[in-house]
Design goal:
With 230 residues, the chain is of the alpha+beta class. The protein folds into 2 domains: 94 residues, OB fold (Dihydrolipoamide Acetyltransferase, E2P) (Beta Barrel), CATH 2.40.50.580; 127 residues, Trna Endonuclease, Chain: A, domain 1 (3-Layer(aba) Sandwich). 17% of the residues lie in helices and 45% in strands. The strands form 3 sheets. Strands 1, 2, 3, 4, 5, 6 and 7 form a 7-stranded antiparallel sheet that branches. The longest helix has 15 residues.
């Protein structure tokens, strides 16, 4: 398989290039939550899957995937699984599998002002604790004590609708995600600005919603969060 270069859309008029050694391969099987086997360059090797979701629509035997070289003496695997093809499409379109990448993408989008919903915030801090919780971002202003707590959720699952595929989160029950929503609701109830950002990691979805069939507790917590201003 040839080496490839990937460019990921960040926002209107903005893109992020993945400047690293990438190779194409074919997914073989998922060994456990964070390890899979992929066939590439004439061999089958274990690779790290940086996503705890089920990914059943993407990690299908024979499906094309893209790996990033991560060789290091401190690692058990030499490659990370970064992208997976949307099955059945020629030429392929890709879904971002690495759930860490949306953190970098959102950070850039915030700093470049691509998201008007967060206009006016000039400081962006990552993984900041408040009380007994830690959230993905804390946004601030240079001239005001106002802050906005932001939690990011990466979405890779879609379901068919009459209007086209709709992204759904989560693809597996997430007690942690539900706890985050309830903690944000408590902060918002006290007058602090809070937000949840859903990063839809595939190009075929036209909208996103909570996956009540998979995790009714998360869907309920999301609705309650919206009602108190998150």
């Amino acid at each position: 398989m040839p080496h490839v270069r990937c460019i990921v859309p960040v926002g209107p008029g903005s893109r992020m290039q993945l400047d690293e050694k990438l190779v194409c391969g074919r997914f073989v099987r998922r060994v456990n939550r964070f390890v899979a086997e992929v066939q590439f360059e004439g061999q089958t090797e274990p690779v790290h899957v940086p996503n705890s979701g089920r990914l059943t629509q993407l990690l299908i035997p024979g499906n094309p995937v893209i790996l990033a070289d991560r060789r290091s003496p401190t690692r058990k695997t030499d490659w990370d699984l970064i992208l997976a093809a949307l099955p059945g499409e020629t030429p392929p379109r890709w879904s971002l599998v690495d759930s860490r990448r949306p953190m970098d993408i959102l950070l850039r989008a915030l700093r470049e002002g691509c998201l008007p919903e967060f206009g006016g915030f000039t400081r962006v801090d990552r993984e900041v604790s408040v009380g007994g919780s830690r959230f993905d971002y804390r946004l601030g202003r240079d001239t005001s004590p106002e802050v906005c707590w932001v939690e990011l959720k990466s979405v890779t699952l879609t379901v068919p609708t009459p209007w086209g595929p709709e992204a759904r989160f989560p693809d597996a029950p997430t007690k942690r995600g539900t706890r985050h929503l309830r903690e944000l609701s408590a902060l918002a109830g006290g007058g602090t600005r809070c937000a949840v950002v859903f990063a839809v990691c595939r190009p075929d979805a036209h909208s996103v919603s909570a996956n009540a069939e998979v995790d009714p507790a998360f869907a309920s917590a999301l609705w309650e969060a919206a009602m108190v201003g998150v």
